[in-house]
What we know:
Largest sheet: 6 strands, mixed
Structural class: alpha/beta
Shape: globular
Order of helices and strands: EEEHEEEHHHEEEEHEEH
Number of helices: 6
Strand order of the largest sheet: 3-6-11-9-8-7
Number of strands: 12
Amino acid sequence: xxxxxxxxxxxxxxxxxxxxxxxxxxxxxxxxxxxxxxxxxxxxxxxxxxxxxxxxxxxxxxxxxxxxxxxxxxxxxxxxxxxxxxxxxxxxxxxxxxxxxxxxxxxxxxxxxxxxxxxxxxxxxxxxxxxxxxxxxxxxxxxxxxxxxxxxxxxxxxxxxxxxxxxxxxxxxxxxxxxxxxxxxxxxxxxxxxxxxxxxxxxxxxxxxxxxxxxxxxxxxxxxx
Length: 225
């Protein structure tokens, strides 16, 4: 992947070069993601049924808050916090609800391992963890597949990798993910940087087209920073 300030295109090696879109707030990122699928989407199919599937996309969110005015006005209420959202120890931040078991899938908390690695090897500025394990053929795999933690400019930047994401409700995962980033950063004594998100298959269900159209009609201007 190639990071560019302008629009994405082809890199010199012939592969796809992704523009990293930058947004000031989670609400702005959500509107930008909806607009991305709306403008460039094509017909596709997912387990629940027919979808409109957009091209892969990467973006950063500078500020995330549960009081985001766009999300409060146009979004759906977030699910109530569960035990899976609560860290088991100060140096072992949890993953979002439903992924706590993945954090300990290999015998030790992977997020604890991230903190220990970046503490023990200060010259190491990044650490990746996988949130998936191979399952039976045909079994559903989790939408989020990996997290990357990078120390850049004395801040901790986290990248969340999604194999697929329903963009109509995508924002519901970003603030819990940012909570994870904040906890890991605090354990390292660093401030959190932006949250970076990569989605390989951003999509919206055909049955949700009217809802998406209504949100975009109320937000006519692009919101990328």
